[in-house]
Each structure stands twice: as structure tokens, then as C-alpha cells.
User: What shape does this take?
Amino acid sequence: MAKVLLRVENLKKYFPAKGGLFYTEKGILAKASVIHAVDDVSFNLFENENLGIVGESGCGKSTLAATILLLYKPTFGKIYFYDKEITQLSSEELRRLRPKLQMVFQDPYSSLNPRMRVKDIVAEPLSLIEKNKYNVTQKVREIIVKVGLREEHLERYPHELSAGQRQRVAIARSIITNPKLVILDEPTSALDVSTQAQILNLLKDLQKEYGMNYISISHNISVVSYMSDRIAVMYLGKIVEIGKTEDLIIRPKHPYTKILMGSIPLPDPKRRDYMMEVIGETPSPVNIPTGCRFHPRCPYAKEICKVSEPNLREIEDRLVACHLVEEIEKS
Amino acid sequence: MEVEDLSINFETLYGTLKVLNGVNFIINEGEIVGLVGESGCGKSTFALSIMGLLPPQAKLMGGKIYFQNSEINVLDEKFMEKIRGRKISMVFQEPLTSLNPILTIGEQLMEAIKIGSDKKDVKKEEALKWLKRVGIPDPERTLKRYPHELSGGMRQRIMIIMALATKPSLLIADEPTTALDVTTQAQILKLMKNLVKENKVSVLFISHDLGVIAQIADRVAVMYAGKIVEESKIFEIFENPLHPYTKDLLSSIPKLEGKSEKLPTIKGSVPNLLNLPEGCIYHTRCKYVMDNCKVKEPELKEYLTKRKVACFLY
Assistant: This one.
């Protein structure tokens, strides 16, 4: 069995809802409401494995990413990195750990400091742990070529680069400290398809060379499936299904996964009538439905789904949180 | 709608940007035509130009636009005002910025709805009918709401009503589902397809997403650096793309099933519109480039049955 690199246990992250004063529609002062952004998420990431997290906007996938890296303090739950609990670390210990855990953000326009040159942007994370300036410069030169840019780009500012080049800079910055885990939060959403293909290939090449693990987060299921060995599907702060990429895409078990996979517009006009349609919209993470979170929109919902919340349970090759999986499979 | 040889330049501080370079385009009655291309290829400028909504730095370099068999002058503001929103209407990408934030949905809908009677209750009746038709729950209450109280999918439904309520003959949809989630996108695409059939309207559907185009369009044109490089019926273009750019674009999409180790990519990047390459605009990135491509510009011409491609290979 491969070693567990990252273990997340019952992780929760709640935010107080914005506004200060809480009025209901009738104008009566109501009690403060809470956004259940991540609500009891557990999973393991093994060494040499890439995990994907998919879900629609507001499902909590980005909050989950930021909480794993302790950019947010978890409301509840534990995170282990190589069997060491990191949720209780002091800020000094955490700073020493940070180089091993990195992140690439969605928008390379806002994630790079516009007043810094590329060389300083890339060097910054390394210079926090490597005091020898010469070593830092050498490493920056090496890494900039690895991400497909040239040394001349080092003197430029972010606004002088294209979106694809900027994302390469963001990647260089995240891998310069030799991290074990890199979280890619929508790494290609701001890019055109042809640039997207270049960046995805680059990420795979870098992985072969440096051996880090990726957690890819995206609403774009084809991007996540290309990058990941296993996929977790999130709905309203919870994981509803985890399984091997191919199996999960070809034979989704949870009704939400089925609908999600069925709504992807495939570049194949012959399959246009296969598009599935779901009723209604995602409820707000402030008022979470009782029982199964998906029951108000689920075409298979029964009485039990309204009252009892299903937990992730092992079904054949994967984990699914649905009371009715066996029943649905039979029909 | 028929567009002949449309060319538009943008005058900027850095020089002249050649945004559209001789675009020929036909939208037949009752047809959904997809226009696909990467960002900066000129697809939005094309849409704005046929609406007569070009920004002041844009210069019309040449070309003719025919609408319902008569030539229209998109620069004639008085004339375009009569057409815009009535005969040609538009749905934009981001519905939050295209709705008025300080008017209720009801007020905005009633303004858009043009029916014989000016009576308020007749219009309200019509507004309610539309809201029900596009699947908005609790239409009575929605009329009193403001745009920010609705979700992205709901707002886009409102935009679609406002675009169709005037009974236009042409609807231009510029990336109407790009800001939406996949499940909402699936709902909106299905709704649009049905409404288009019911209302007998032609649609120009602009998107960067080949998947979305494959789901909705009857015919598709591929745009690259201000030119249409290929155009044909939807099934043919996805089954057997002709132009090297279309081929490259299709193969660079990661497939859902059956993983490949490496994604095919297009070498280089989109040419600078200030300084377009000589000959074929795609020759610097093309896998099949020949000597001829570097000096001569291929025209969009007919190939096989009713397909059009601008490439010397054919």
C-alpha cells in the first residue's frame, strides 16, 4: 500500500454570513446565519497520486483547497501531512512547512504582484528559506527555463506577458521550493483551449521531473480528469462520490455525479440529445436542506432522503454518499 | 443576414489593429449559426458591428451588410435604433452587468415587452407568461425582485426573455452561458433551443467553447485572427475538420474518456493584430505549411458539398 501523503479528517469550514445585521424578509431580526462552505470532508491522498476535485461554483472546492493549506483556520477537523498533524502547528512551524505545500491560482492577472519583476516573483518563496542569494538566482534561472519561458522574461513585469506566460510564472513560483503537494485551483480557467493544452502538458512534464503530487480543482471536468487518477465530486460542501477517474466518469453512481457528467457539453454533435437536465438550482450553503443535500433536486429521491443524511460508504470500487445507490443501479 | 467582405480596423496608440479582415457570413432564416474562436479573434467585434454598436476607435474599412434582403448602414445611428432591440436583439455574457440594478425585474420586463396594448395588466400578464415559460419559480414574486437577488442562471433567463419578447428576427448570443455552471448551462442551452424553434428566430451563437457549439448550432464558422477559416454544417466539421486550425483546436481539448499521455498543442501563439503575417494568417503555426502559404492568402471557397474552407490544401 502506498504511503498516505495527506489525510483530511472531518474537515469543516464555516463562515459567518456577511451583513452585520441579520434581517429576514419580513424585517424581523433573525439569528446570525452561517455559511457551511466545507462541511465534514474526509479523504486520503496517497504518494504518487493525483486527486481531482470537481463541483459547481459555491460547492466549497476552493475553500477546501485553502483550508487544506491552512490559509483558512479550519472550524473543525484534522489534517495530516505524512502522519503529522498540521492543524495544530504554531505559526513558526507552519512557516517551515509551507515550502512543501504550494498552490497555483486561477487568475494569473491578480495572483502576481504587478509591481514586481518576474525574477522577484519567482524567487520570493525560495528566498524565505534559502538565504544564499546566489543559489536563489541560479535556481530561478533553472526553473524559468523548465516552465517554458526564457531568461529574458525574468526582467519583465507581469503586464508584459500573455495569460499563458503569466500562468507559467505562477507555476514556476509554486514549484521553486520543491513542494510535495501543489494544489491547482482552476489552473487553466482563464486560458484559451490551445494555451490550456500547453499548460496541462507542462504540469505533467514537471511532475515527472520533480515528483510532486497535484490536487486539481476545477469546474471543468475534462481538465480535472486529464490531470487526476482519482476524482472527488463535491456538492454543497460535502463529497458525494470519490472514485477512479475513468470509472467515475463512465459509470457515475451518485445521482448528482450522473447529472453533472450528463451536463458536460461534449464536442460531438452526435451526442447532443444525451445532455441531461436537472431541476432547480443549487440551494444556498446558508440553508442546507435536511437529509441528503441533493434530495430536493434528485430525480430518485425517496422519503428516507429527506430525513437522514447519507454518509460516504464503500460500494464496489468507490465511495458514494447515497442511500439508494443499489436501487438505482438495479433499475 | 448576409455579410460581405466586412473589414474593421481599430485605431490605437500603438498602431492599427486589423480586427476583422474580410468576413463573409450568412445567417439563414430559422437557423442557429455558431461562431467559434479563441479570445481576441474578433468574434465579439463581429457581433457588435452587425448591431451597429462599435466603439468610437473602430473604423469600417469596407464591406456590406444585408438584413432581410436590403442593405443596412450600421453607422446610421437613427436607422439602427429602429432595428436594434426590435429586429435584432442581443444576449450578453454577463447578465448582471446588462440588467439595470436599480429597477425591478418587472419594470425591466414590461419595458421590453412590446405588444399591441399599452395597458399595464396586459403587459404584466405577458411578463408572467414569459417567466413561466423560461422556468422561473414563483413568477409573481420575481417581478418585484431586483437583479442582484437572482442567481446567474435566472438572470440569464430574464435576459433571454427581454431579447425575445420584442419578437426579433435575429438573436445574437455572445457567450451566453460562459458565466454559468455546467448544469445551469445545460438548462439554458435546452431552453434556448426550444425558444428559438417556438419563436422562429435566427441565432448567431458566439462561443469559445466547441462543446457548447456542438450542442446547439446547426452550422458553424471558425474564426481566427479576424478571418473565417472554415464553415460548414455542424456534423461535418466535428467529424472531419478541414482547416488545420480547426483540427488543432479540436484535438487540444482534453477528452473525457480514454486518457492520452500528452495533449496535442498548437505551436506558437496567436499573431499580433498590429502585424499580421503575410500569406495565410495561420501559416506560422500550421503543421502542413507549404511555400505557397507564406506568400499568398487563401480565400474562403467552396469545397465538396456546401463546405467552405480557406486553405491551399483543398
User: Anything to note?
Assistant: Confidence is low (pLDDT under 50) at residues 24-28 of chain A. Chain A has eleven helices and twelve strands.
